[in-house]
Amino acid sequence: MALPQYKRVVLKLSGEALMGDQQFGISADMIKYVAEEIRSVFDLGVQLSLVVGGGNIFRGIAASSYDLNRVSGDHMGMLATVINSLALQDALEKKGIQTRVQTAISIHEIAEPFIVRRAIRHLEKGRVVIFAAGTGNPYFTTDTAAVLRAQEIHAEILIKATKVNGLYDSDPKTNQTAKMIEKANYMEVLSKRLNVMDVTAISMAMDNHLPLAVLNLTQKSNIRRFICGEKVGTLISD
């Protein structure tokens, strides 16, 4: 059996990934599938933490287009990530994985506050930690939160699991000849506006030499295969 190449990993999941084929909300089948994928990585002995978005329920930047204050919209988006995190926690614990949700905003009755030393201790004890509510600040995306948390817990890599196979040199939805990029550096991503993450997240990863991977969540075992060293998706690094 192939051995994992990383000991501590942050996995970023978009809220949209939890929708499955639905238009919004959480798909029961999809969240079970995600829990199975996480279980397969957990069984390798990898210390795993998750950051999940809230776009399947509410997206602050979109809400501002219909005259809702951006700050209020972003706060609502943070609460949406908490809903998704609790759903993931339930699905993982049904798979026998001890899980802790830590939030960047205080909701003591349902989740722990984010404390970096406590998060690391949970990982060392073999628990999965889900970081909810982004950074706790409006105007910052959950991509930026994922990079920040990865730095704080000293993760070796941040994996963004999406609905595409990796980075492309142009939009594969509009350009059938678009080519997938297996390896890229941070400046290429920024200069070519490849839109894998927002500029703040990419810049922070570059400044701190945090490798990023982009792969397709919907292809079974992709996350496990990548962690075990197979060529899957796109790797972004120095």
The CATH superfamily turns out to be: Acetylglutamate kinase-like
Order of SSEs, N→C?
EHEHHEEHEHEEEEHHEHE
Number of strands: 11
Low-confidence stretches: none
Overall mean pLDDT stands at: 92
What share of the residues does DSSP label as strand, in percent?
15-25%
Strand order of the largest sheet: 4-3-5-2-1-6-10-11-9
Q: Please state the second-level CATH architecture.
A: 3-Layer(aba) Sandwich
How many discrete domains? 1
Fraction in helix: 25-40%
Radius of gyration: 17 Å
Structural class: alpha/beta
CATH topology title: Carbamate kinase
Outline the biggest β-sheet.
9 strands, mixed
Q: Given the structure, what is the number of helices?
A: 8
State the separation between the terminal residues, measured CA to CA.
29 Å
What key attributes describe this structure?
single chain; alpha/beta; 238 residues; Carbamate kinase; 8 helices; globular
List the helices and strands and how they pair.
Elements: E1 8-13, H1 28-42, E2 47-52, H2 60-63, H3 70-94, E3 99-103, E4 112-113, H4 116-124, E5 128-132, H5 142-152, E6 157-162, E7 167-168, E8 180-181, E9 183-185, H6 186-191, H7 199-207, E10 212-216, H8 222-227, E11 234-237
Parallel strand pairs: 1-2, 1-6, 2-5, 3-4, 3-5, 6-10, 9-11
Antiparallel strand pairs: 7-8, 10-11
Structural write-up:
The chain is an alpha/beta fold and about 240 residues long. It has one domain: Carbamate kinase. Helices cover about 35% and strands about 20% of the residues. It is built from eight helices and eleven strands. The strands form two sheets. Strands 4-3-5-2-1-6-10-11-9 form a nine-stranded mixed beta sheet, sandwiched between helices. Helix 1 (about 30-40) links the parallel strand 1 and strand 2 (about 45-50). Helix 1 (about 30-40) crosses helix 3 (about 70-95) and helix 5 (about 140-150) packs parallel to helix 7. It is globular. It starts with 7 loop residues before the first strand and ends with a strand.
